[in-house]
Specification:
Elements: H1 4-17, H2 22-29, H3 34-41, H4 47-60, H5 70-75, E1 83-85, H6 90-99, E2 107-109, H7 122-131, E3 139-142, H8 145-153, E4 157-160, E5 175-176, E6 183-187, E7 196-200
Parallel strand pairs: 1-2, 3-4, 4-5
Antiparallel strand pairs: 6-7
Helix pairs in contact: 1-2, 2-3, 3-4, 4-6
Length: 201
């Protein structure tokens, strides 16, 4: 899903409420846990309380959109072979998944599930652990620099989309594709537990 506009709007509102520079806050925000953004931008505030406030506003923001090709992509992968690793809290993630009618992943790693968020490797390592696979066999789809760094630190390959950042800022990724429809996932012919083949067009 594309939450770029919602994140920008709600962080801007929050920054102005507290006399902070919205542009500075937004530079730190994308792909990073809300609680860490607040601790960095406003260490004098109650980070947990402010996180709850911002993420409730984000959950209520109706500008979040389903990315074209998202449903088709996840439906092309066996349900036990993919998951979601997000910097948002569980309540925010599940509310968006339900509202946009995205299949609920069997593996959902959220901000509460790790002690260190992206760009640390912890979130993606947790995802691999819950999927029961080796990190080096994973391919991550990311749209934020912090997420690319997190996945690479976990030993994973990364496909990135220029939805939050322009393509030139995502060059740390292994592959940059303009849209999800360019990603094709198929099985190698050895049944549901065979290797997944990821291709780009």
């Amino acid at each position: 899903m594309d939450s770029t506009a919602a994140v920008a709007r709600q962080y801007t509102v929050w920054a102005l409420e507290h006399g902070l520079d919205p542009a500075w806050v937004l530079r730190a925000a994308h792909g990073v846990r809300t609680v860490e953004v607040i601790r960095q931008a406003a260490p004098h505030l109650d980070a947990e309380a402010e996180t709850s406030k911002i993420e409730q506003r984000e959950a209520d923001d109706r500008s979040v959109r389903l990315m074209p090709g998202a449903i088709e992509l996840v439906n092309s992968i066996p349900a036990n072979r993919w998951g979601v690793v997000t910097s948002g809290r569980r309540a925010l993630a599940t509310s968006r998944i339900h509202r946009l009618r995205i299949p609920m992943p069997r593996v959902l790693v959220t901000a509460e599930d790790v002690t260190q968020g992206k760009p640390a490797p912890d979130p993606y390592l947790k995802g691999a652990e819950l999927l029961g696979v080796a990190p080096q066999t994973c391919v991550v789809v990311e749209d934020a620099v912090a997420g690319i760094q997190s996945a690479h630190a976990a030993g994973m390959r990364v496909v990135s989309l220029p939805s939050t950042y322009p393509a030139e800022e995502l060059q740390e990724a292994d592959v940059v594709v303009p849209e999800l429809q360019r990603i094709r996932v198929s099985l190698d012919g050895n049944g549901p537990n065979g290797d997944l083949i990821v291709q780009f067009s």
